[in-house]
Design brief:
Elements lengths: L9 H16 L6 E6 L5 E6 L2 H4 L6 H13 L7 E7 L3 H10 L3 E6 L24 E3 L4 H14 L2
Parallel strand pairs: 3-4, 4-5
Antiparallel strand pairs: 1-2, 1-3
Helix pairs in contact: 1-5, 3-4
Length: 156
């Protein structure tokens, strides 16, 4: 279940939104992610969806950011990292977040149809989930949601 106890830094969500806009410009579903070192505040990785470009159904922003940060640090566990993402992670990304042991997930728009955190299988609430990050949802929800709505309306 999404918590709202912590106040996330909005500048990181602005960075994720910038990534999402890059995705939209490239014809990708506009989702952006930024992975931040919670101790130093350094951005470890940033990414946006590249499913179309890479012809890869797993090329979601969250997975790309986790891969880049893990590769760059040489660590398979990113226990001091916070993920800022513009859309509620899908089940695939939520499971990757659990495997990477991220400290916190901050997302913008809720995804009742494809989400895996507050909707659908609610991955972090499953008894088989080995790691449950802190989750904060609805951060800059209006801006994140508008970007997605505008993208899909333009394609109809």
């Amino acid at each position: 279940m999404t918590q709202t106890a912590a106040t996330p830094r909005p500048d990181y969500m602005a960075e994720a939104l910038a990534e999402a806009r890059l995705a939209a410009t490239a014809g990708e579903v506009p989702v952006g992610a930024v992975l931040v070192d919670a101790t130093s505040g350094e951005i470890l990785a940033r990414a946006h969806n590249r499913v179309e470009r890479d012809a890869d159904p797993t090329a979601h922003a969250e997975l790309l950011a986790i891969r880049a940060a893990a590769s760059g640090s040489g660590l398979k566990r990113l226990t001091e990292a916070d993920l800022y993402v513009t859309l509620e992670p899908c089940p695939m990304c939520a499971q990757a977040i659990a495997f990477a042991r991220l400290r916190r997930v901050i997302f913008g728009a809720y995804d009742p149809k494809g989400g895996g955190v507050d909707h659908g299988p609610r991955i972090f609430q499953q008894p088989t989930c080995h790691h449950r990050p802190e989750v904060v949802g609805g951060v800059q929800e209006q801006a994140c949601g508008a970007l997605l709505r505008d993208f899909f309306q333009a394609r109809r």
